[in-house]
From TrEMBL:
Natural source organism: Urochloa decumbens
Enzyme class: oxidoreductase
Domain Fatty acyl-CoA reductase C-terminal: from-to ranges: 401-498
Gene3D superfamilies with a match to the protein in the record: NAD(P)-binding Rossmann-like Domain
InterPro entries per UniProt: FAR, FAR_C, FAR_NAD-bd, NAD(P)-bd_dom_sf
Domain Thioester reductase (TE): 17-323
Family: Belongs to the fatty acyl-CoA reductase family.
Catalysis performed (reactions): a long-chain fatty acyl-CoA + 2 NADPH + 2 H(+) = a long-chain primary fatty alcohol + 2 NADP(+) + CoA
Function in brief: Catalyzes the reduction of fatty acyl-CoA to fatty alcohols.
Name listed for the protein in its UniProt record: Fatty acyl-CoA reductase
GO MF annotation, one: alcohol-forming long-chain fatty acyl-CoA reductase activity
Record keywords: Lipid biosynthesis, Lipid metabolism, NADP, Oxidoreductase
Biological process per Gene Ontology, one example term: lipid metabolic process
């Protein structure tokens, strides 16, 4: 396995990619086009009213991004012509049967397809349950049904998340690269029936929709669906709706795959591009980036987390390199007894702690101090970290809730003079406490992701030429201090901190 074999695999292949407008999807599209210009076609399934609007979305949200700068330089004036020949926007949606496509379009697409890569997902931890089920579970079902109509199909790759393992705050545990069994629950004695969950949502929505349709009713339904998702996730042992429905998506794939060649890739927290095509490039705020942005703005005085805890992060380009290598390695493996699962993670081979991230951030801002509106240097302050949710709750209550209650009493004495201020501050306080509830489990995640399958794939890689290193996905190659200080933090400030 070397660069020539991986790049060569995609020659004259037709590839369908979902989620191409997202962070990882863009990196994958760019990489295939750059290393294998002789790929037949890359079909990008995107939401759009028609082919024209889908094409416009792909052009604006994918092709015109800075990530494609290297490819633009390579092709010069012929860049747009190259893109038109290779990239096809398809107006559809995985939440619908037949992907929302007309029968002739669906059949023509099926005849062409060699590889399907499903990256599309709703990643909101507190998403509506119905929306999460539609995208993360039913989307997998509809893609599987389509894949079975593809006579030339050589690979179906499902991009999941390493955190389908659930909440492991209370114990240190090695999380294996093994498929999730159908009906599996993280709480003993409970059977997870996907069809029953779909019926539950349908009935809940039917009850909620009995009320007259107005803004208040829509808001009530939205909130009820969010709460239902969180409730069902925790009933079965998952900390939030996102990882719960991604786990169900894996179950759905296991049920429907038949003899299809299938691979599941589970990245941990995906961070900015490390090497190529554009170091530091990223899209979408991850949990750790909240810390960096808050520190940059100097409006975050405290943070939830133990600095000694390992934060499992992996650069986006390394995830894509691993995905492409896995596709080439397992192509046409029909009738697999067990679905190959790959953890694109770092906690086992090269762990990085929150302390490394914090120290890197502090060093960066000391060397590159922020300047205020008046031109004066903004001093870099120390942050306070709380090792337990209980301690942070107590701190927030004393620092914010107690003054709020005093304001409430003053407001009553003054006949509601401060009602608007009190309501606004109280709403913000409740929102912060809600975030603690939803994101807290990840701040103290003690699991370590085994990556023996990924290590075998790495060992099969020949790293003899500069081209081979273009497909490096070994976390041991990362110096975390250098990466955070020189690449990731500047990337966050450039692309996310507006």
């Amino acid at each position: 396995m070397d660069a020539a074999r991986i790049a060569g695999y995609f020659k004259r292949k037709s590839i369908l990619i979902t989620g191409s407008t997202g962070f990882l999807g863009k990196i994958l599209v760019e990489k295939i086009l750059r290393v294998q210009p002789d790929a037949s076609k890359i079909y990008l399934l995107v939401r759009g009213a028609d082919a024209s609007s889908a094409q416009q979305r792909v052009q604006e949200e994918v092709i015109n991004t800075e990530l494609f700068g290297l490819l633009m330089e390579k092709h010069g004036n012929g860049f747009q012509q190259f893109i038109q020949e290779k990239v096809v926007a398809v107006a559809g949606d995985i939440i619908y049967e037949n992907l929302g496509l007309e029968t002739p379009v669906l059949k023509a697409l099926a005849e062409e397809m060699d590889v399907i890569v499903n990256i599309a997902a709703t990643t909101n931890f507190y998403e509506r349950y119905d929306v999460s089920l539609d995208v993360n579970v039913m989307g997998v079902k509809h893609l599987c049904q389509f894949a079975k109509q593809c006579p030339r199909l050589k690979m179906f790759m499902q991009v999941s998340t390493a955190y389908v393992c659930g909440d492991v705050r209370s114990r240190e545990v090695l999380i294996l690269e093994k498929p999730i069994e159908s009906g599996e629950s993280l709480h003993e004695g409970r059977y997870l029936d996907i069809d029953a969950e779909l019926r539950l949502v349908k009935e809940a929505k039917k009850e909620l929709q009995k009320s007259p349709v107005d803004e208040a009713a829509c808001k009530t339904e939205r909130q009820a669906m969010k709460e239902l998702g969180l409730q069902r996730a925790r009933h079965f042992g998952w900390p939030n709706t996102y990882v719960f429905t991604k786990a169900m998506g894996e179950m759905m794939l296991g049920q429907l795959r038949g003899a299809m060649p299938v691979v599941i890739v589970r990245p941990s927290i995906i961070t900015s591009v490390r090497a190529d095509p554009l170091p530091g490039w990223m899209q979408g705020v991850r949990t750790i980036d909240t810390l960096i942005i808050g520190y940059a703005k100097q409006n975050l005085s405290c943070f939830l987390g133990d600095l000694s805890v390992v934060v499992d992060v992996i650069p986006g380009d390394m995830v894509v390199n691993a995905m492409m290598a896995a596709v080439a390695a397992h192509s046409e493996e029909k009738g697999q007894a067990v679905v190959p699962v790959y953890h694109a993670t770092s906690s086992l081979r090269n762990p990085a702690t929150y302390k490394v991230l914090y120290e890197s951030g502090r060093r960066h801002f000391y060397k590159n101090p922020r300047v205020g509106e008046n031109g004066e240097v903004v001093p870099t302050k120390e942050m306070r970290f709380f090792p337990t949710i209980a301690r942070l709750r107590l701190y927030l209550m004393l620092t914010f809730k107690l003054p709020l209650e005093i304001l409430h009493l003053v407001n009553l004495l003054l006949c509601g003079h401060f009602s608007r201020l009190y309501n606004d501050l109280n709403r913000k306080y409740k929102f912060v406490m809600h975030l603690l509830d939803v994101y807290g489990p990840f701040a103290f995640f003690n699991g370590c992701f085994d990556d023996i399958n990924m290590e075998r794939l790495r060992q099969a890689m020949a790293m003899k030429t500069p081209e081979d290193h273009m497909f490096n996905f070994d976390p041991k190659a990362i110096n975390w201090d250098d990466y955070f200080t020189r690449i990731h933090i500047p990337g966050v400030l450039k692309y996310l901190h507006k």
